Amino acid sequence: MATKSDIMLYTEGTPNGLKISIALEELGLSYQVREIALFQNEQKEPWFLEINPNGRIPAITDKDESGQEIKVFESGAILQYLVARYDKDHVISYPYGTKEHWEVTSWLMWQMGGVGPMQGQANHFARFAPEKNPYSLGRYVHETRRLYRVMEGHLAKSPSGYLVGDRVTIADIAIWPWVTAYKYSGLSSIDEFPNVVQWMYKLLERPGFERGRHVPKPHIYLDMNRLSEEELNEKAKYGVQWIQDAMKRDAAA
């Protein structure tokens, strides 16, 4: 039985959004979901900007002990909020101040400052740029591959197969949705990183990951890894003009 909470998750089925639904499922929390219509620019509407002034997903609202509304945005901050408030038994975390806690924090920041931005840019230049720019694509794909190599070396030394210690943590949760989207982001394969591949499928065996990856709709990225480049580019066509329009709006704001 899920533990009651007042959490409302504002999300879409992107890697950053999936981090939060997976964490919520791993913690066994009840929560509500509000799918944000990104391609209708719902994330830019005034009501949503009151929750996240940056106009991005994911975001959550919750209530404190006195009933006051709490608003948290940025996926890393949300993950830290969830464990600080709801993970008293350290199901997906370690006690604050322990060496494991700081290792988890380090890997979380590694994802937020490295894998997410680099792979996100690789995705943009692989699928959504109006013109192919080999230098830009190569820059971000190679940096993403370097980051995967860092993770590969670390996991090779992990007895548990997790990033930190003997359990899954918010570090694993933050990185996993990005790794599942490797091919859509321009990496043709990750077979050169066998420990990363093993880690990815080990986590998929967890019920929390299986449930959380399908919020707010079925997870697409693992299946997309089996598609050809032509098929992937065809699927991405829907977003090319939307991204160009969004760039123009942001520049004019």
From TrEMBL:
Q: Which InterPro entries match?
A: Glutathione-S-Trfase_C-like (IPR010987), Glutathione-S-Trfase_C_sf (IPR036282), Glutathione_S-Trfase (IPR040079), Glutathione_S-Trfase_N (IPR004045), GST_C (IPR004046), Thioredoxin-like_sf (IPR036249)
Domain GST N-terminal: start-end pairs: 4-90
Boundaries of each GST C-terminal domain copy? 97-224
Superkingdom to which the source organism belongs: Eukaryota
Instruction: Name the family the entry cites.
Output: Belongs to the GST superfamily.
Task: Specify the protein name.
Answer: Glutathione S-transferase
